[in-house]
Amino acid sequence: MHNHPSGDPSPSQADIQMTKAIIDIAKPLGIAVHDHIIVGKNGHASLRGLRLI
Hints:
Blueprint: E1 2-3, H1 13-26, E2 37-40, E3 43-46
Parallel strand pairs: 1-2
Antiparallel strand pairs: 2-3
């Protein structure tokens, strides 16, 4: 989870790539990444909810 100070919670391409990299690194360690939430002053976005992971 992190915030976007701009207020727009839309995930950037960097957010998506970083999340996928963390998932790939965590999987062999037996760690499950359930979601990546981005918070902005105009709401929030879930990468899982957006079907990006």
